[in-house]
Amino acid sequence: MYLNVLRYLARRVVFALAAFLFFIVAIFTLPRLIPGNPVDVLVSRLVMQAQANPELIHAVHRKFMEEFGVGLPLWKQFTRFVAQLLRGDLGTSISMYPRKVSEILALFLPWTVALLIPAILVSWAVGNFLGVLIAWRRGTVLDRVITPILLTINRIPFYWFAMVMLFIFAVYLRFFPIGDTYRWGLSPGLNWNFVVNYLHHYALPFLTLVVISTGGWAIGMRSMTIYELGSDYILFADLLGLPQRRLLAYAFRSACLPQVTELGLNFGLMLGGSLLLELVFNYRGMGSITFQALSTLDYPLIQGIFIVLAAAVIAVNLVVDIVYGLVDPRIKVT
Amino acid sequence: MKKLRNTRLIISTGFFLSVVALGVVGPWVYPVDPFSPSGKRTQPPSWEHPLGTDAHGRDVLAQLMHGIRTSLWIGVIAASIATPIGVLVGGISGYKRGVLDELLMASTNIVLAFPPILLLLLVTVFVPVRTRMVVALLIGLTSWPLLARAVRSQVMSLKERQFTFLARMAGLGDIKIVLVELLPNMMSYVFSSFVWLMSGAMLAEAGLSMIGMGVTADVSLGTMLFWAQMIDAVRRGLFWWFIPPGGILTIMSASLLLLATALDELFNPKLRGR
Amino acid sequence: MNTLLVAKDVKAYYSSPKGFVRAVDGVTLDINPGDVVGVAGESGCGKSTLSNVLMMNVQPPLKFVGGKLILEGVGDLAVMERQKVKAQVWGKVIALVPQSALNALIPTRKVGAFIKDVLGYHLKLDARKASALAQRRFQELGLPVETLAKYPHQLSGGMRQRVVIAIATLLNPKLLIADEPTSALDVSTQKQVLKMFLHLKTEHIVRAIVFITHDIAILRQIATRIAIMYAGKVMEVGPMEAVIQRPVHPYTCSLIRSVLTPEPEVKERGLSHLAGDPPDLLQPPAGCRFHPRCPQSMAICTQEAPPVVGLGKDHFVSCYLVLEGCQC
User: Domain of C235: which CATH number?
Assistant: First the structure.
């Protein structure tokens, strides 16, 4: 029995590693597909972007020739690249030279995590609860009215909804600040002043994210529950005289399992959405830094962001798979 | 129940077609150039400019109508690219099973789990000039996995049925069975999938544009939002500028999704599930 | 002894966009204590629908159209609300082993845990007592007690079928209805399941059984009475030996001939020597429903449905041939 669990886990881990390797190879290959010397191209963009002084540009150029390993055979470039990665070295930023990419990311990542993870969990819980409720009352007025509304909410673009929310609640009604992560001048820390101010800034992006993602979860849960309620085991339990509540609990349990997997698959989608949302709210997380990296064409930074987010998506999916293996008896004992 | 579905079908088609009409017929009725200034900057709605002007003095309504065209175009092309890929990958994977299935599903899951926007980012960095075609291609090539998964599970269930068995007995090849025997049975499903892929592609386009990685030198609903965001339209209270493009996008995308679900329920109530 | 369940002229139709599908169309059936009533017929004759109708498990698109269903000690189920029937009857008085018994166990719950749910709800037993009762019952029915600690996917098809039967009879219902309980099983497992049914009856765990199947050979091993269904109607009903040895209705004859002939080639052809297909229940033929396929059809058969005629003790048939004193 434990052998099965181990085999399952081993497969998931191998899959995760393979996926990560795939992305590493992709990110390694892409800049090297540019004809000519990639460093020339990347640095020349810096010259076009900002009127940097020639000395700085030379320093940057030299630094990147070294980091990229230009001139070395490809396989050596690759092993260097991987070795740097393993040391946690994501290279040096061009636009914020000479700061290290990993330093910059360490500054921005926690804010995104603080926004995204609670929003995902809350919307997952609320959405699933709502979905079961609608499934239970399927075919009634509640279902007929709410389901199309949820479908519509599911299709509202994150970023646009963020703009509308910001306009209504911050610009027009002035309930919330019009953006930023916390008031300028405060320093982050676990003190009353900061936490209250942070939460005040946090509320609107958080709610926006929750409202938008709840729709999708609810729709998924509704159809899964309805599917399970029509299954043979529910019929049998019904014919045994077990009460509605109990039947719903059985269906809920079975319907939850695929929703756990969906959690992993949706993480990536929500991550993408929250990056855009941060932009609208001027929330200083990965979204802002991604936008900055893109607009300055800071390739090392883009690459670093990409690697970190890829790793996060893969890790979350691995965790979800492991949790799934622990809750679904069909995997635990075969 | 039956009647209800039909009303949903009619309402969603109605909404969608009115937006399409706005994009297709609108420019004839309202021939204002969306690309160059036609009035003062940031004017609120007036008789002259029904939806006001943007920060460059360009007419928002004219941009909106042009943007609908761009978004629709990208939606249709991207869905036309993604649908065959999804059907093929899912079909082969569900029919053949075994190692090939594992491999195909593993790659499907990689693409699926990964935020498409990031993948697109990476590529767009290296494609500085992006026409509609380039954007549609990028979106199309990254949005097939959900369809592949759904098709796979359907093929797996269809495979168990009698006619597949008979076809195999008759000595038809695997690919041929998928194309000749299974596909016709899923045509309606494939069609509704095309509709929801289109819905998703239009959202993806706007998302890309939002961070300045969408079509260059053209107006789409996404680029409108991008410029509004860049020039801080929200905090400056220029609601006529940023509300319409997102609203239209929501209506188009949601009506297409509703249409897809209504079609699904209408054609094959039994073939649902993920 | 009182009759356990009396079904009188029961009609239940499926409403479809094209009209009503008359799946059960005027079925009259008495079920007495001690009976094992076998209901036989081709697929699509309404016997599966009948199994649900007998316990008033009627949900759209199926509609109860008319008739009475008198359950001893309870009354006419047909006039009771579904929720009331469920609370008073299901599981306790009448239990059903559904056709899809292989998938009837909750995939995420161990067999024992599910049993605790059932006993906890109906008998208000705590976990320990429930598990003791479950163990005793499993032992009595010859099921391995370890099964209680297993998930459904760990059990074989035959074992799942037997577990479902054991669970359905946990509360000692008076009547057990089993819908095709043996058709998905191999021959040796079929034997075990049949043995279990007989045990349930001889030990008085249940008082009567309705056994629905397309396989007359199986009925021969277990039934005391047989009802032959065709196109939503009971064509012939009577004591098992009487019906098998001296069938009267031409449909019964062909059904029996197809199954009981020793020559394998005839057996395999099944009912194919009967010309035509079972009728469309949207528009059943006028007169006797069997007349388009009946080898002995007469003029009157096409016009008027034959009356039900009694032939000795408990043997009824609905055919004009009887009136003329013929047998097939």
Answer: 3.40.50.300
Distance in angstroms (rounded) separating the CA atoms of residues B269 and B4: 14
Whether residue A7 lies within 8 A of chain C, CB to CB, comes out as no
A41 interface with C at CB cutoff 8 Å: no
Domain extents in chain A = 2-86, 102-327
- B199 to chain A, any CB pair closer than 8 A? The answer is yes
pLDDT tens for C147-189 read: 998 888 888 888 999 999 999 998 889 999 999 888 878 888 8
Record: contact A294-B199, CB cut-off 8 A? no
Domains of chain B in sequence order: 2-33+52-272 (1.10.3720.10)
Interface residue B113 vs chain A (CB under 8 A)? yes
Would you say residue C49 lies in a domain? Answer: yes
**Tens of pLDDT along B65-86?**
999 999 999 999 999 999 999 9
CATH number at A102-327: 1.10.3720.10
Angle between helix A2-32 and B116-125 (nearest 10) = 20
Nearest CB to B126 within list A34, A163, A276: A34
The pair of structure tokens assigned to C122 is 């109906």
A325–B contact, CB cutoff 8 A: no
Subunits adjacent to chain B (3 or more Cβ pairs under 8 Å): A
ipTM > 0.85?
A: yes
pTM: 0.81
Q: Report yes or no: C164 at the A interface, CB cutoff 8 Å.
A: yes
How much is the pLDDT for B120? Answer: 64
Query: How many C-beta neighbours within 10 Å does residue A113 have?
Result: 12
Q: Does B183 touch chain A (CB under 8 A)?
A: no
Which residues in chain A come in under a pLDDT of 50? 334
Interatomic CA distance for residues B204 and A123, integer angstroms = 22
Compute φ and ψ for B214, nearest 5 degrees. Answer: -90, -150
Contact predicate C238/C309, CB 8 Å: no
A155 interfacial to chain B (CB closer than 8 Å): yes
Judging contacts by C-beta atoms under 8 Å, the chain A residues touching residue B1 are 139
Strand C75-76: give its sheet, edge to edge: C19-31, C5-16, C62-71, C75-76
Residues of chain A with C-beta less than 8 angstroms from the C-beta of B8: 148
Domain span at C319: 5-93+173-323
Q: Say whether C108 and A257 touch across the interface (CB within 8 A).
A: yes
In a domain, C148, yes or no: no
CA triplet C299, C301, C307: central angle to 5 degrees? 135
User: Would C105 be classed as within a structural domain?
Assistant: no
A246/C117 touch (CB, cutoff 8 Å), yes or no: yes
CA-closest candidate to residue C46, choices C229, C255, C292: C229
Percent of chain B clearing pLDDT 90 (strictly above):
22
Residue for token digits 């709210």? A281
Quickly list DSSP for C140-196: HTT--GGGGGS-GGGS-HHHHHHHHHHHHTTT--SEEEEESSSTTS-HHHHHHHHHH
Q: How is residue A278 written in tokens? A: 């941060």
Chain B contact set for A310 (CB, 8 A): 114, 118
Find the residue in A nearest to C52 (Cα).
A239
**B243: contact with A, CB 8 A cutoff:** yes
Query: Would you tell me the crossing angle of helices C157-168 and C111-123 to the nearest 10 degrees?
Result: 10
Contact A233 C121 (CB under 8 A): no
Angstrom CA distances, B147 to A232, A261, B82, B103, B111, stand at 27, 17, 8, 16, 12
Mutate to test the interface with A, among C109, C124, C156, C169 (most CBs of A within 10 A): C109
Mean pLDDT of chain C: 84
- B101-127 pLDDT, tens digit each: 888 887 887 777 666 666 666 666 677
